[in-house]
Amino acid sequence: MNRKILMIAFLSVLTIGSSLRNVVKAQQQIVVGAEQHRPQFHFSPKEHWMNDPNGMVYYKGVYHLFYQYYPKGTVWGPMHWGHATTKDFFHWQEKPIALFPDSLGYIFSGSIVVDEQNTSGLGKNGKVPLVAIFTHHDPKLEAKKVNTFQNQSIAYSLDEGNTWEKYSGNPVLPNPGITDFRDPKVMWYEAGKKWIMTLATKDRITFYSSKNLKEWKKESEFGNDLGAHGGVWECPDLFPMEHNGKTVWVLLVSINPGGPNGGSATQYFTGNFDGSTFIPNSKAEKWLDYGTDNYAGVTWSNTGKRKVFIGWMNNWQYANQVPTKKWRGAATIARDLVLDQIAGDFYVRSVPVKEMNAYLKPVSKKQALTLNKEIDLSAYTKDLNGRIKLDFGFNTLNSMEIALSNKEGNKLLVGYDTKTKTYYIDRTNSGASDFEKGFAKKHTAPRIAKSESGKISLILDVASAELFADDGLTVMTDIFFPERPIDRIKISGAGKQKLTNLAISSIPSFK
Ligand code: FRU
What we know:
This protein is mostly beta strands. It has three domains: 1-34; 35-352, Tachylectin-2, Chain A, CATH 2.115.10; 360-506, Jelly Rolls. The protein has three helices and 35 strands. Strand 13 and strand 14 form a beta hairpin. The chain is globular, with a radius of gyration of 25 Å. Bound molecules: beta-D-fructofuranose. The site of beta-D-fructofuranose (FRU) has 12 residues, from strand 1, strand 5, strand 9 and strand 13. Beta-D-fructofuranose (FRU) binds at residues 51-52, 68, 79, 108-109, 135, 182-183, 234-235, 296. This is Glycoside hydrolase family 32 protein. GO terms for molecular function: sucrose alpha-glucosidase activity. Pfam families: Glyco_hydro_32C, Glyco_hydro_32N.
């Protein structure tokens, strides 16, 4: 009898235990559920599809981000311009859709300028017009194989970017017969008192100029015989930067496919621009980011000498298949671009925007250690919900590896290999990857810095890793899809390197 009661009690404890576990599991699934893999401090739309950042403009204390958006689905479709604003690149406010497709087609990528002097005549009653210059992509002409299906058009806003009116004389730059004719990035060229449009035209860049944003004249072409050509050129950006008092022009060109680790990526050129022609000062191929997941990025306009960049944190190779449910696509962390010179050659470094510092919460004391055995940092990182910044300094950078994992056994490896002088991110066993054959891979990037010492920052936000090595000379952005966020971190290294700095910070959720 007693044994029977005991047995019943034991069994009910077991069932209660297992049903409790089921409840907990179900709750976790609800928490994770539709929001699994949601970045917590990067911009991503509440729902539906996004790709390229567009029309980034700073105006009256607000950074506007528009983006390629399909509000009816989570795969690419008829493109609109979504809209979000921020003052610090971390708190984002999603706004109503800014531009809808019309009889001229979908609204493809483009830029926005502040037409301070009302050169366009679109301003009224003393209101400064913000003018958007974008590509109209006509799917009907495309289907008919008429090669003039992409044309440049404009729209304007008289209420600081909140609402937009398309110009009645569109398109302002009709297609001369080039199948890929898109993604205008416009800037004011003060020395010539004119606007310059940098346009991706298939396998090259074409520069146009205008006095009023409505009539455009071809200036020159660049790049059909230079740089990477594994795919079509897209989403360019042209701007001056300074280094030791010298002005150097930087030309960003996204390319798809043909990136250094497959699929889409962004290359750049440095040189001189005289208002008409861009002359590169080096033939070397340079990449703004060697990872697979920073595409179509450009800089904000109207920010003076500061150049802030944001990219689409994805790759056309698998963008339509990544395993998120309510939304697809996110932006990279905003980055300050800095011009640098190494062994006589100019490079563009990318560093997380300085606004980030205000949100970092140190969870470890800054310390110096010898890296002669594996160091387990999990005590610091186990409760951070996958929102982590790691900063390491090395007296002499030698082979080293940071292993990031969770109890599910998902593992992301980030490291440096002295033999090949390459940094790497290996996402082979980092979580879900069956949505695309080429996803589970190791990606590499050359070390550009020439110094013995090394510096590495790594930013994790649930489903992304952004590696800034040597103060952003070598950058790698990779997305990955662990079953639950990373909470265990270990670092190991060869050859008794000294870690001159080790700092771990948590980053809040802005959701
Ligand atoms: C780049 C791109 C652009 C185009 C847009 C369409 O990712 O292909 O060239 O304007 O996306 O959504």
